[in-house]
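Page 42, continued from yesterday. The earlier attempt failed because a stray header line got pasted into the input along with the sequence. Redoing it now with the clean sequence only.
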Amino acid sequence: MPVAGEGFSKRARLLKRSDFLRLSRAGRKSQTAHFVVLRKTNDKGETRLGITVSTKVGNAVTRNRIKRLVREFFRRHSGELASPQDIVIIARKGAGELSLAEAARELREAFTTQRSRQR
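This time it went through. Structure tokens are written below.
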């Protein structure tokens, strides 16, 4: 059971195609071996997450597992992220073989790299 405040509410999700397209055009991009992270500040007052995993990455079981790993990382670390922003995480081939710890390490690296570039 998640602790209070650690859930992944519908307000914290990017759901519209237009939001995904806006981020792909205007968002800051960082990459790791298995993920591409796009970020842009928003005026919604809350950090929102969108996840994209194409069929090239694996079958439905693999794609859903990757999405669960990314959501868990976001749920645990959303408080550490800077100002309210929209984030899209795109999984690449090979992401399905990662453990939660490995995925978290790569995503943390992507966010750290991006933060240092912004300075």
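Notes: The first helix runs from residue 17 to 26.
Reminder to self: strip header lines before submitting.
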